[in-house]
Amino acid sequence: MTFVLLHGGRHGGWCWWPTADLVRAAGHHVLTPTLTGLGERAHLLDPGIGLATHVQDLVAVFEFEDLRDVVLVCHSYGGTVVANAMERIADRVRSLVLLDAHLPMEGECVLDVIGPERAAHLLALAEREGEGWYVPPESAARYGVTDPAIAAWADARLTAQPLRTYQDPCGPNDRAWRHPGMFIECSPSPLTPAQRARARARSAANPAIVHRVLATPHNAMVTAPAALTALLLEARGSIDTAE
Question: What is the per-residue pLDDT across 151-168, written as a single tens digit (0 to 9) for each?
Fold first, then answer.
């Protein structure tokens, strides 16, 4: 089976390496795409990059790799990308896994759902250190990474992200809200109480969506790769059909 692991804001496909290795060892094909302007594609950083660019990045992976029956996993900001992309790729996705991920409703943007305090922080950061159009990276400690070696490894790879990607509103995304899969809630989590409540309600309303709590901070793919891998393998077999 194929797993597509999509990173969150200011990260890149690199953040999935510890988890991807374990999923591959279990016998599965794994892709860890990096969104335009981030990670090893940081040289493409441009103020014109918006949410639509990142949506097309993900859709293109599915189309050019001819992916089907996929377990699609998204982390944090990656959930916003997936929310839009699912309108085009849902038929190719077996299970949708939200790892402490944002899932805005139609018309909402990332800044709308992360809470006013966090939104104000990102806007101020962009104005102060990002020329008004990009959000510079923050330390991995911000995401709950406390191991000094892992934090140093991550800090060397975190990159800036266009502010516009956080400001662009989601388009229609009903398929993402209805799709079978799993919501993995990290504990502690930086998601707002309202976000966690909405995600839990989505799981409660749809018997094909499983809710799991993982006792590790937000960046579970590097802080608890073995435990996360176990849940991803569970998500692979938690449903029988894509929709």
Answer: 999 999 999 999 999 999
